[in-house]
Amino acid sequence: MTTKKIWLIAMVFGIIAAGLLYVMVINNENQSAIPARATASDDVKEKEADQKKEEEMKAEEANEFDLKSEKVTGNEMIPVSDGNRAMTIAVNDVQGVSGNIEPGSHIDVVAVMKAPEKKSKEQHDSATLLLQNAKVLAIGHAADDEETKKRYQMITVEVSPKEGLTLGFATRYDLYVMLRKDGDKKLEPDHTHIHEDDLHEGVFK
Questions:
Q1: By the 8 A CB rule, do 159 and 85 touch?
Q2: N or C: which end of the chain has fewer CB within 10 A?
Q3: Which residues neighbour 110 within 8 Å (Cβ) at sequence distance 6 or greater?
Q4: CA distance 95 to 54
Q5: How far, in Å, are 185, 189, 203 from residue 173 at the CA level?
Q6: Which tens digit of pLDDT belongs to each residue from 35-82?
Q7: pTM for this entry
Q8: Residue 138 burial (CB < 10 Å; 0-12/13-18/19+)?
Q9: CA nearest neighbour of 152 among 141, 136, 168
Q10: CA distance 176 to 178
Q11: Sign of CA dihedral 8, 10, 14, 17
Q12: Domain residue ranges in the chain
């Protein structure tokens, strides 16, 4: 075998070996790149999931805050008309029409008064129609929830300054509330009242 043939054979084997080496290197690079890409994709998905959870938590916190705020300010008072005043009176379940009054209702206020001691022998206790068609501005307290407001013990009504003085003076007596039908604006004569002895007439002798 001549030297020339030996060199040709060596060159051919060298080229083949170089080609095989190149193919092996490329395959290794491709295999290394695939996990790297997969890892990057997984990182993106994980970040998106974390961001979504964070947004959901913020939304839940916002909802809880809104609910708390609603409980605190859920019983807002109707605005008072120009020239009038807002005044609150205490009532029990019976006096307050068993929880059927709500803001915007119209009521009459009755005061049951005891006769003065000096005149107790001459006349009995009496009941008088103190206010008529008074507008209810609020019930209960501002912080009451829906269930508590149904068992209100406070009623805020709209009054004129003079009516406020009258009502303030009458709070020493038992006050009762009469709920009006919607649209009923009929008024009784001023100083409408009844004495206890009027109830006795025709009953007791």
A1: yes
A2: C
A3: 127, 128, 129, 130, 175, 176, 177, 178
A4: 52
A5: 26, 22, 26
A6: 555 455 667 778 888 888 888 887 776 655 454 443 334 457 899 999
A7: 0.56
A8: buried
A9: 141
A10: 7
A11: positive
A12: 85-200
HEC letters along 16-44: HHHHHHHHHHHHHHHHHHHHHHHHHHHHH
Cα distance between residue 57 and residue 59, in whole Å: 5
Give the chain's end-to-end CA distance (angstroms, integer): 159
Tell me if 103 sits within 8 A of 173, measured CB to CB.
Answer: no
In which region does residue 161 sit, left (phi positive, over 0), alpha (psi from -120 to 50) or beta (all else)?
A: alpha
Q: How far is CA 180 from CA 1, 100, 124, 203, in A?
A: 129, 11, 28, 30
Nearest to 143 by CA among 194, 69, 83: 69
